[in-house]
Amino acid sequence: MRIGLISDTHGLLRPQAMKQLAGTDHIIHAGDIGGPEVVEGLRRIAPTTAIRGNIDVAEWSKGYPDTELVVLGGRAFYVLHNLKEIRLDPAACRLDVVVSGHSHRPKIETKNGVLYVNPGSAGPRRFKLPIAVAILALSDRAILPRILEITP
Questions:
Q1: Global pTM value
Q2: I want to staple 134 with a disulfide (CB 3.0 to 4.6 A). Which of 8, 90, 103, 119 is the partner?
Q3: What is the 3-state secondary structure (H, E, C) of 58-120?
Q4: For 37-72, what is each residue's pLDDT tens digit?
């Protein structure tokens, strides 16, 4: 199973991001969506779970939660926008993956047996940070994360 991770689109769904996410079985958007057309576009690729980010304050965003727990391929994913606002202990809650955004910095790390992935920003470039998405390949034995940088 392949899971696509995207965040901080800020209303811009790049064709390059869509190309990288093509063929995934599910997509997770970790907030700062920027407009309903972004999630509509992602749903043309695969079923999509999306949460609200700090810029998602317009009426269209009211139906999106601030956090989400989703089970995919037998793994528990906890999604929130800003990792600094996490209010639970992922290891104690037996989560497999925590997906976040907000910083615009792609990052993969494991702490206490929990995989933390920030796919970075796929929207407008901020400073000199890369434009990126992430893919998680799930197998019976492993979760293999990869950051995919997008050249605009």
A1: 0.97
A2: 119
A3: CHHHHHCCCEEEEEECCEEEEEECCHHHCCCCCCCCCCCEEECCCCCCCEEEEECCEEEEECC
A4: 999 999 999 999 999 999 999 999 999 999 999 999
